[in-house]
Design brief:
heterodimer, A: 1264 residues, alpha+beta, six-stranded antiparallel sheet, 51 helices, 52% helix, elongated, B: 5 helices, protein transport (chain B), golgi apparatus (chain B), membrane (chain B), transport (chain B), Longin-like_dom_sf (chain B)
Chain lengths: 1264, 183
């Protein structure tokens, strides 16, 4: 029985898969959380089991729970375990989970690097695909750096499925590791012309994404994209390209001119709405970039507007929306063309769809003119009344204000009308934009002098009816208006008809319920009014009014003196004392008005918002320096000064801090209540005691009666804006009539019929004269204001780092890749497998940047000069010569190969910014200057593209993964030092002395630096000395057209597979096409061919090689026995194509599978290693190497690198090493060195394999 | 770039979430709620674009969605994507689901979230459109499914064991409207 239960529970545990979990959750709707927590417990149990299937199942369930909002990061390590399963099914589950919940700060991510690398190079394309997909979601800067090279290799994978994924993920890699952009770019560009449409589309996608952020760097690709645009039929690709052109045209108007015609053709021909829409968009961008003085483009603009009208009239809301969106872009530059569709746009204002109404509102902004402003605003005001929901209404409100205030109130002819519109808007209940209305009122009143009388009158009425506005709630944003009203009444009080009345209105007890910052303005402006009253009564023998005013102040101000708001309190008590003093003087009949008025004398002028920023800093003023000693840090935080002098804007700054104040108050009150509640000695107030509060300024406690008004408030005495529309109409008519009269007079005088155009047809803009003499005060700027860039980019923008100049990658030798720019390659780390990531990084830095700077400044300067000279001369010389020169340099300089860092550093410094005369740019110029005849341009584009791409300088650039040598001359091959060849190419003939010195070292530079204490720990080689550059790529075959190098690597996952990476390098000046790779299979080793092809079929290599370019392809071989080395015969066939002819060429080769290539670098710990040796299953063998003349750590590094071993332990001049074959054979080495003699004792469970490996090791060292 | 893909039903229950930018779990749920709130109050006959999800993105981002019977498919994209293109992409995705699940319904998505993810992975990768050709997508999905089957996974094997309740109303949404002809 008990057993049964146990068994049952185990079964259940095993059985509960994702579906069961989902079902369970659905069946436990009431206690879902509880059910899920038991499920999570089960999952935790499952994760503890060894069975990977159970684990995977658990992880799959976790992914579901993650969607429901559960944090599953605790299982991150288990996810990594599942990711590393050898079965695709589980791997996929693992990667899915990782992509859902890993992010940059997930610490286990750093454990995944090797796993991902393994998956990326898996022969199963779906393993690779899954890894790429996963990686795209959680790539970190570290992963990007470590894997960039692997991913780049995948960009030329044989399977398009992998290629397209690899291309796409490069964008993510660029974002995380911007240094990879330059080395990877040439290959990315190459993928634009990939035979597979999916890959092509991916490449377009990535470049568009890059170009969108930094368009100027991609201008040179325009010809290529142009070609694609005119040739591609894939709408997705077309859309992307056309969008890209939209981003490029603002930088190069000539490009726009060239684009117009093909785009217009597309607009006419395409049936795809999406494409049509994007074409229209780009045409608009082109038209914007072109100056408007192009008469022949009015047809294009008409076409766009006409097509957009069709979209807007469509019943499909989506098209309508987009039509309006595009229309608003045209509006900016061609308002006239849009204005003719005013009817349609106004119609959209009534649409049921809010998105569409909002878009239509955007358009209205540009549709207004002096003539129709009032009419449009009237319509909007109607909408405001009708609108449901505050968001749309608020949007309307801001739009009305935007429309009216745009370009310095350009379209307002009657400011009385505008003021009354603003006043009408104050009747909106619950709007958030009270402050916006307030600032408009202030702005208009300050800047339009003529309107002040009217404005002051209106504001006085507003103040008088303040209770209507503030109505009920504190939070009603509209009460901000009172702030403006009070200030205007106070500041321009001389215009007030009855200042006494307004003064009274401002000092009503109800005012104390307003927010603090408004009260403060009230108090201050009451004082101003008081001064005005005094002044008006001056000379008046009857001083009662003045005394009444003083009395009123003295009566009412104490209310404010009690205010909780500091500002209010301070101002009130100050003014109260002042008034009391004045009263005393008044009683003595002293004239005081002048003195009081002097308090508020002077006019306030508006200041430009940026004025403060533009004040030049005087000489000798350091704003960052401490004036006094820095304060100690012990000061309490509470004392942090609040922004007392907030912003000094033209208007009194909108006090934003009040909200904080309220919150803070609420918080404190709450805290106090808490404290009181916990204090047994505190006597709590009974509810009835609330009355007490009414007299005190604790405003919140006043019970508020909600008044529900369904009828819009009509404030008595306030004018309705509508009447202005009529008035305006009348005024204009009158004006027109007057004008006619004048005209008639003129005509009478002149007797010519020329004046006709005035009375016929609608009046033109200029005819409408403003109703007031508008005197718009301009904003003040400080003297000698500094020009400043305001739209600086956000420094945190990841795309900023990608602003990398890519043009000169193509132009010969301008700024080819420096060594430091190369992607980190796996081979660097062959001996470092056991390092922790931190150490790893260090090691890499060391190896890539050897700080051996001994150059003097002088030399560098010389170099710079020469560099310039060289550049000039290069431009003059043609490419052939260039190549020759390069070779020469390489010959001369190959002796310096042991100082890579020194060189690369120097070259980096020497780099001069690309000049506009560079060949590349002139190519573009040439292309752009062509007449925009499609057939012509296509040709030109091809030529330009062909010229741009295969410039000889690009050879090195395209193959950062082939960091291994592709030596051109035999000398280099011998020395195997050509890793740094690339730099040599750009090195010029320099300092001869230096060179001679170098030449001394030349032959020994591998073993040159002897001595130095070496200590090695488990698996690491401390790199005190630079390791010589090494490569596993060896020459496969070579003829005058092509050079082929290869490297073989075992596949850990599949004991019968090895991957052969082959680098093809085009050595000639022609295109190499249709390359096919074939190998004569042996019984033991077979080339894996795609399904359905015969055993003798050759494989097509998925790329072409332009002159000077190299690229890598990978081939998978299956092998049965790995204990013997073997050779496979093969042939490479290709077509050499140049302008005149194309020939078929063939190259035979022998592919050498060494036993070493079946070994895989596998880390091993010393204890495991010891056990292995003790086990006694291993057969031993040994060799001796004589005359080895290199430091021990170099020797070890060589064995590690060339023979895929890892160092287990090293003691002085003795080291143990380990490796493992793809079929699981253990190979152990004990390496000792004593005076140039190296003895290697080896053990392996397969003696034949061991013998062969040792032979190969011997051979390696006999070569050097 | 696509910033996020959300699928939820008429009650706001998530059926698939795929963020291409990191958000913590609670933030993800908040975004789902906000998005649901924005999308669900819209009529079916208004446009499929929405601006102003405040949590995700900002001014450059748009929500582009489609509503099928019981499910909302929402893509959050920036201005580098073509609006109509994304609408069609959603359609491609849904039609692919329909083919892979043979008359897809909400329950398929509920019980096979993982499979839906795998299909989505063939359409969008890391926030960028990977493939738009439906046949190619289906072919790749099927090869991988076969691969999975060959690895034998008895207790995770799936067969349809529930009734079809909500079959998507494809008749309402007329295929791929904006005629990206090469789909």
């Amino acid at each position: 029985m008990a057993l049964k239960i146990v068994k049952g529970s185990i079964d259940r545990m095993f059985d509960k898969n994702l579906q069961d979990l989902v079902r369970g959750i659905r069946n436990h709707k009431e206690d879902e959380a509880k059910y899920i927590s038991t499920c999570i417990d089960e999952i935790k149990q499952e994760l503890k089991q060894d069975n990977i299937a159970v684990k995977a199942n658990a992880v799959c369930k976790l992914t579901y729970l993650q969607m429901l909002g559960y944090d599953v990061s605790w299982a991150a390590f288990n996810i990594v375990e599942v990711m590393s399963s050898s079965k695709f099914t589980y791997k996929r589950i693992g990667y899915l989970a990782a992509s859902q919940c890993f992010h940059e700060s997930t610490d286990v991510i750093m454990l995944t690097t090797n796993q991902i690398r393994k998956d990326l190079s898996s022969p199963n394309q779906y393993d690779t695909g899954v890894a790429l997909t996963g990686l795209s979601c959680f790539v970190t800067p570290d992963l990007a750096r470590d894997l960039a090279n692997d991913i780049m290799t995948l960009m030329s994978h044989t399977k398009p499925y992998i290629r397209k994924k690899a291309v796409l993920i490069m964008y993510k890699v660029f974002l995380k590791y911007p240094e990879s952009l330059r080395p990877a770019f040439p290959r990315l560009k190459e993928k634009l012309e990939d035979p597979d449409p999916g890959v092509q589309s991916a490449a377009v996608n990535v470049i568009c994404e890059l170009a969108r952020r930094n368009p100027k760097n991609y201008l040179s690709l325009a010809p290529l994209f142009f070609k694609l645009m005119t040739s591609s039929t894939n709408n997705w690709v077309l859309i992307k390209i056309i969008k890209l052109f939209g981003a490029l045209t603002p930088l190069e108007p000539r490009l726009g001119k060239k684009l117009i015609e093909p785009l217009t053709n597309l607009i006419h021909s395409t049936s795809a709405m999406s494409l049509l829409y994007e074409c229209v968009n780009t045409v608009i961008a082109v038209l914007i970039s072109l100056s408007s003085g192009m008469p022949n483009h009015s047809a294009s603009i008409q076409l766009c507007v006409q097509k957009l009208r069709i979209l807007i009239e469509d019943s499909d809301q989506n098209l309508k929306y987009l039509g309006l969106l595009a229309m608003s872009k045209i509006l900016k530059t061609h308002p006239k063309s849009v204005q003719s569709h005013k009817d349609l746009i106004l119609q959209c204002l009534d649409d049921k769809d809010e998105s569409i109404r909002l878009r239509a509102l955007d358009l209205l902004y540009g549709m207004v003119s002096k003539k129709n402003l009032m009419e449009i605003v009237k319509k909007l005001m109607l909408h405001v009344d009708k609108a449901e929901g505050t968001t749309y209404r608020d949007e309307l409100l801001t739009k009305i204000i935007d429309i009216c205030s745009q370009s310095n109130y350009q379209y307002i002819t009657n400011f009385e009308w505008y003021i009354s519109i603003l006043v009408e808007l104050t009747r909106l209940e619950g709007t958030r934009h009270g402050h916006l209305i307030a600032s408009q009122m202030l702005d208009v009143a300050i800047r339009v002098k003529a309107i002040r009388v009217f404005a002051v009158a209106q504001m006085a009425t507003l103040l008088d009816n303040a209770h209507m506005l503030t109505g009920n709630t504190q939070r009603n944003g509209i009460c901000e208006v009172l702030y403006a009203a009070a200030w205007i009444c106070g500041e321009f009080s001389e215009h007030l008809e009855n200042p006494m009345e307004t003064l009274e209105a401002m000092l009503r007890p109800k005012v104390a319920t307003l927010p603090g910052h408004i009260q403060a303005v009230y108090v201050q402006n009451a004082a101003k009014l008081f001064a005005t009253v005094l002044k008006s009564q001056e000379g008046n023998t009857d001083s009662t009014t003045a005394q009444e005013a003083s009395q009123l102040m003295i009566d009412r101000l104490p209310l404010f003196v009690q205010s909780a708001n500091l500002e209010v309190q301070e101002r009130a008590s100050c003014i109260l004392q002042l008034v009391k003093y004045i009263q005393k003087l008044q009683q003595k009949d002293v004239e005081v008005s002048e003195e009081v008025c002097a308090l508020f004398a002077g006019e306030l002028n508006p200041v430009a918002p940026k004025a403060q920023k533009k004040v030049p800093i005087p000489d000798g003023l350091d704003l960052d320096a401490w004036i006094n000693e820095p304060p100690s840090e012990s000061e309490s935080e509470d004392e942090q000064p609040k922004a007392i002098f907030s912003k000094e804007e033209p208007k009194h700054s909108r006090p934003r801090h009040t909200e904080v104040d309220e919150k803070e108050l609420a918080r404190r009150r709450e805290a106090r209540k808490q404290e009181q509640a916990n204090n047994p000695f505190y006597i709590k107030a009974s509810p009835s005691s609330q009355k007490v509060y009414q007299e005190t300024p604790g405003v919140e406690h006043i019970p508020v009666v909600q008044i529900d008004l369904s009828v819009p408030l009509k404030v008595p005495g306030l004018p309705m804006s509508d009447q202005y529309v009529k008035l305006e109409e009348e005024r204009r008519q009158k004006e027109r009539a007057e004008k006619k009269k004048k005209d008639k007079k003129k005509r009478k005088e002149k007797r010519s019929g020329r004046g006709k155009k005035h009375d016929s047809g609608p009046e033109s803009e200029e005819d409408i004269t403003p109703a007031h003499m508008v005197d718009i005060v301009t904003e003040e700027m400080p003297e000698n204001a500094l020009p400043s860039d305001d739209d600086e980019r956000d420094p945190a923008d990841p795309h900023k780092a990608l602003d990398i100049d890519l043009d000169n990658l193509e132009s010969a030798g301008k700024r080819p890749l420096a060594d430091s720019e190369k992607l980190p390659v796996r081979s660097h780390r062959a001996a470092e497998v056991l390092k922790s990531p931190a150490e790893d990084e260090e090691g890499e830095n060391v190896s890539s940047l050897e700080p051996k700077k001994k150059s003097s400044k002088e030399k560098r300067e010389k170099k710079k000069d020469k560099d310039k000279d060289r550049k000039k001369s290069k431009e003059e010389k043609k490419k052939k010569k260039h190549k020759h020169e390069e070779k020469e340099e390489a010959d001369l300089l190959c002796g310096q190969a042991d100082e890579p860092a020194f060189q690369s550093e120097e070259t980096n410094e020497v780099v001069t910014p690309p000049t506009s005369t560079s060949a590349d740019v002139s190519d573009l110029d040439f292309w752009l200057s062509n007449a925009p005849v499609p057939s012509n341009t296509q040709e030109a584009a091809t030529v330009a593209a062909a010229e741009a791409a295969p410039a000889p300088g690009a050879i090195s650039v395209t193959t950062p993964d082939s960091e291994p040598e592709e030596p051109k001359d035999t000398e280099m091959e011998e020395t195997k030092s050509s890793k740094h060849k690339k730099k040599k190419q750009k090195r010029e003939k320099e300092d001869k002395e230096k060179k001679k010195k170098k030449k001394h070292h030349h032959h020994h530079h591998h073993h040159g630096d002897k001595g130095g204490e070496e200590s090695v720990q488990n698996g690491t080689v401390e790199e005190e000395e630079p390791l010589p550059p090494m490569s596993n790529y060896c020459l496969l075959a070579e003829n005058s057209y092509i050079k082929v190098a290869y490297d073989i690597q075992g596949n850990l996952q599949d004991g019968s597979q090895v991957v052969v990476s082959v680098i093809f390098e085009n050595k000639c000046d022609s295109f190499l096409k249709s390359m096919e790779f074939n190998v004569l299979d042996s019984l033991n080793s077979k080339l894996q061919r795609p399904e359905g092809s015969g055993p003798h079929d050759s494989l097509t290599i998925p790329f072409q090689l332009p002159p000077g370019v190299s690229n890598e392809a990978r081939f998978v071989f299956t092998v049965q026995s790995i204990i013997m080395p073997q050779k496979l015969k093969g042939t490479l066939t290709f077509i050499v194509k140049n302008e005149e002819s194309s020939t078929h060429e063939k190259l035979d080769f022998k592919l050498h599978f060494t036993c070493t290539s079946y070994l895989i670098t596998t880390p091993c710990y010393s204890d495991a290693f010891a056990k292995l040796l003790e086990s006694g299953d291993l057969k031993s063998s040994s060799i001796r190497l004589e005359g080895v003349n290199m430091p021990f750590h170099h020797l070890l590094a060589r064995i590690c690198f060339h023979h895929h071993f890892s160092v287990v332990e090293r003691i002085d001049s003795c080291a143990s090493m380990y490796s493992r074959s793809i079929q699981g054979h253990h190979v152990c080495l004990l390496v000792k060195i004593s005076s140039q003699t190296v003895s290697v004792d080896a053990k392996c469970d397969e003696p034949t394999l061991l013998g062969n490996v040792l032979d190969e090791i011997k051979q390696t060292f006999s070569q050097c | 770039m696509i910033k996020a893909i959300l699928i939820f039903n008429n009650h706001g229950k998530p059926r698939l979430i795929r963020f291409y930018q990191y958000f913590a779990e609670d933030m993800q749920q908040q975004i789902i709620r906000e998005t649901f709130h924005l999308v669900s109050k819209r009529d079916d006959n208004v446009c499929n674009f929405l601006e102003g999800g405040s949590l995700i993105g900002g001014s450059d981002y748009k929500l582009i969605y489609r509503h099928y019977a019981t499910l909302y498919f929402v893509f959050c994209v920036d201005s580098s994507e073509s609006e109509l293109g994304i609408l069609d992409l959603i359609q491609v995705f849904v039609e692919t689901l329909d083919k892979c699940f043979e008359n897809v319904c909400e329950l398929d998505l509920i019980f096979h979230m993982d499979k839906v993810h795998y299909i989505l992975q063939e359409v969008v990768m890391g926030g960028m459109v990977l493939e738009t050709n439906m046949n190619e997508i289906i072919a790749q999905v099927e090869v991988q499914n076969r691969l999975e089957k060959s690895e034998v996974r008895p207790f995770l094997s799936s067969s349809k064991s529930f009734p079809l309740i909500y079959v998507f109303g494809f008749s309402q949404v007329s295929a791929i409207k904006y005629s990206l002809s090469v789909l």
